[in-house]
Amino acid sequence: MTTIFKGARVFDGERFLDGPHDVIFDGTTITQVAPAGAVQLDDAVVVDAGGKTVTPGFIDSHIHSTFSGASLLEAVMKPFSYQFFEAMRNLRDDLALGITTARDAGGGDAGLKQAIAEGIIAGPRLKISVNIMSQTGGHNDGFCPSGVDTAIAHPGKPSGVADGPDGCRKKARELFRAGADQIKICTTGGVLSPADSPEHSQFTVAEIQAIVEEAEAHGSYVLAHAQGTAGIKNALRGGVRSIEHGIFLDDEAIQLMLDKGAYLVPTLIAPLWVIRLAEAGRPIPQIMVDKSRRVADVHRNAFARAAAAGVKVAMGTDTGVGPHGTNLEELWLMYDGGLTLEGTLKATTATAAELVAPNEKLGRIAAGYTADVVLLDYDLTAGEQLKDLPSHVAAVYQGGKQVI
Ligand SMILES: [Zn+2]
């Protein structure tokens, strides 16, 4: 079946095309993008897109499918399998925003990915990390001051804690065995961990190198939760492909990112959600709220400097900390933090695709690319319009099939 979007304003993944265009797709693939009216087709499904905007399907480079809020207490009081039913709702809510691909940065397992790929449940096509690698006592060690371990491993999600280059290498192998598309590590502490701070470095460069080497042997790469300055630099020197959060980026770290061609996945919305949830009365430990407040401004400032320096930015939200279905607020924050409208959309489409699915034809409106397409019911011409972007998502196509 051939579908034609007629007369749309088109953002192709890099820039807005001049004048209205028709976008044509056949089956799962975009076959043609041409100036409006240039192509005549019989027997096509016609979608009148005059006055509307067509973009590639959005890509969120950092979600947690099975997380539903930052409250540890709420999470540990849920029955074990409930997380998977919540994930069904979460992923459907993300897809409804036009997010047709997402990288799960920890939590989502191979079963979830397969259920989406086979159409059993609706959601963004997933690139999974399975679990998050962390040193003993690090950001993803679930051991709490009480002695309770809240990081519940299961057959689909082996524990992510490892130490020493050999231990780290073995752990990466276990995660690949469990179906990981890429390996997520923590090279610093964080906001939502009891025993550390964002400034603390975790894993040595030798440990990081061992994991990167293992990932590359597997045809894959490593993303690093990295907030403090020293841990960010260790991650980059160890060879990671993307820095997640990047809160305390100094000039040297920014230069290192440029030299290494690393991506920044800012997740500007994440600390804001921790504060919002606490203010709404959800049970979040005060120490975590305090850390969020402390980093929010520094984070915005670091992002602005990195963006101005030309670091490659891929949109990511850490959704799961905040509620799924709110991810697109990140676009407004990136624009407000210094990206242009086109830069913001590129971070959310072509650049994110380059990061999370480098060998797949995703993230662009161009012939030969997968027909992941978002139709916005407004003429998107100014960055200020990103503020109410979610309410303008009129239709979503994933692999040529209308899903919203
Ligand atoms: Zn995260």
Would you write up a description of this structure?
The protein is of the alpha/beta class. The chain folds into 2 domains: 2-56 and 362-402, Urease, subunit C, domain 1 (Roll), CATH 2.30.40.10; 58-327, TIM Barrel (Alpha-Beta Barrel). It is built from 12 helices and 17 strands. The protein has helices at 72-76, 82-96, 110-117, 164-177, 205-217, 229-238, 251-260, 269-279, 286-309, 329-336, 341-348, 350-356; strands at 2-10, 21-26, 29-35, 44-48, 53-56, 58-63, 99-104, 125-128, 132-133, 183-186, 222-226, 242-245, 263-265, 312-313, 373-376, 393-398, 401-402. The strands form 3 sheets. Strands 1, 2, 3, 4, 5, 15, 16 and 17 form an 8-stranded mixed β-sheet that branches. It has a 6-stranded parallel β-sheet with strand order 9-10-11-12-13-14, with helices on both faces. β2 (21-26) and β3 form a beta hairpin. α4 runs parallel beside α5, α8 packs antiparallel against α9 (286-309) and α10 (329-336) crosses α11 (341-348). It starts with a strand and ends with a strand. The model has no long low-confidence stretch (mean pLDDT 96). The chain binds zinc ion (ZN). Zinc ion is lined by residues 62, 64, 105, 318.
Topology, number of strands: 17
Helix content: 25-40%
Q: How far from one another are the termini?
A: 18 Å
Task: Based on the coordinates given, report the CATH architecture of the largest domain.
Answer: Alpha-Beta Barrel
Bound molecules: zinc ion
Count of separate structural domains: 2
Radius of gyration in whole Å, from Cα? 21 Å
The whole-number mean of residue pLDDT values reads 96
Shape: globular
Q: Could you describe the largest sheet, including whether it forms a barrel? A: 8 strands, mixed
Give unreliable regions as ranges: none
Beta content comes to: 15-25%
